[in-house]
Amino acid sequence: MNITIGQNNRVLSGMRPTGLLHLGHYHGVLKNWIELQHSYECFYFVADWHALTTHYENPAIIGESSRDMVIDWLATGVNPGNSTIFIQSRVPEHAELHTLLSMITPLGWLERVPSYKDQQEKLKDKDLATYGFLGYPLLQSADILIYKAGYVPVGEDQVAHVELTREVARRFNHFYGKEAGFEKKAETAIKKMGKKNAKLYKDVRKRYQEQGDGEALSIGKALLDSQQNISLSDRERLLGFLDGGGRIILPEPQSLLTVSSKMPGIDGQKMSKSYGNTIALRESPDELTKKIKTMPTDPARVRRTDPGNPEKCPVWSLHQVYTSDEIKDMLSDGCQTASIGCIDCKQYIIDAVREELKPIQARIKDYLNDLSGVDSIISEGCESARDVAQDTIEEVRKVMGLTSR
Ligand code: TRP
Ligand code: SF4
Fold first, then answer.
1. 70-110 pLDDT, tens per residue?
2. Mean pLDDT confidence for 208-228
3. 28 C-alpha vs ligand 2 centroid, how far in Å?
4. Nearest to 381 by CA among 155, 78, 87, 122
5. Is residue 292 in contact with ligand 2, taking CB distance under 6 Å?
6. What ranges do the domains of the chain cover?
7. Which of 6, 258, 288, 325 is least surrounded, with the fewest CB atoms within 10 Å of its CB?
8. Of the ranges 116-120, 126-130, 329-333, the best mean pLDDT one
9. Could you tell me which CATH class the domain 283-368 is placed in?
10. In this structure, which ligand is nearest to the CA of 316?
11. Which residues are bridge partners to 11 per DSSP?
């Protein structure tokens, strides 16, 4: 991975509270979040302001889903011992940074974000010609930059938002990273690296700035990365001095692209609330059994004795997620020779989903019996998130000419 300086080990991601979580969220997002906890310092939040950008007419669902969403995160393995779990609207610094970033964000940058037009087309029943909807990718930028997150796990549809975030951060650093006496401070910092390294730094800086030598820039970054003796702010200065921009106050994040999950719904399309084809994490065993039993199959198998083709059957996409190759071979054979019935075939999925959800639902039940415990996890998360967010907003206020409190 291309680690650039100023990049920290922090991951940030959010999810909108707009209803019950389902298996698509689990396989597509949560498993990845849980995995990331092993290698990163993770911040995961309930994006309730984001939900309002599309659900402003009917906000009840947001309040109802926020705590339940956190419970489902916890029950699947998001661990408050490793990760900071919080609710966006309880860290108002996100909103302050959003306002401040809005001052420097050209309107065209927001109008050009693909999701702006796409979503307006897709959600035609909603009036999304609002100020909040246009600005929501910038709110997302504020979510990310307020924690100076290095990495943002997102699906493909959100990559453009991280790209916008990078551009906004660059513009911000360009305007406000030029502190008084920047050059002088940079010169002093260079000396702190020792003679040999100082010479190398000046050398590569010259090569980059005079000849556009990209390799020299990489050498310079690697050199700064390896310095133990200089402070973080000197490092930020020297990075800015190296590439000709200002000091890096808001580091540019990178997307961690989640390989798009092929989690199919009970109609074979991608599982999504808007298609009405979901199995909720809280679905009762009976209910999920019924949903799977009534799934459509290969239309050619009208009778039990008609041979079928698994490639034409939505149930088959679920076998790709849950069933071993060995059993799949057996089922595929049985389907094509009509030696098994669809109910037998579906039983494997029913068993697998029940098995998967059993421990999760047991933990959900425990958390539901201890709501005050859940609320403390959330409160503690909000508090630690605020600590970090306040440091950043202080710095931003200062460079934007606002007296600090
Ligand atoms: N916009 C994201 C979504 O709709 C949720 C989100 C909000 C987010 N802020 C974020 C994701 C910051 C990653 C980082 O799914
Ligand atoms: Fe689908 Fe299985 Fe029935 Fe074949 S046997 S049509 S794969 S449900």
1. 999 999 999 999 999 999 999 999 999 999 999 999 999 99
2. 91
3. 25
4. 87
5. no
6. 10-176+253-261+370-399, 182-243, 283-368
7. 325
8. 329-333
9. mainly alpha
10. 2
11. 42, 151
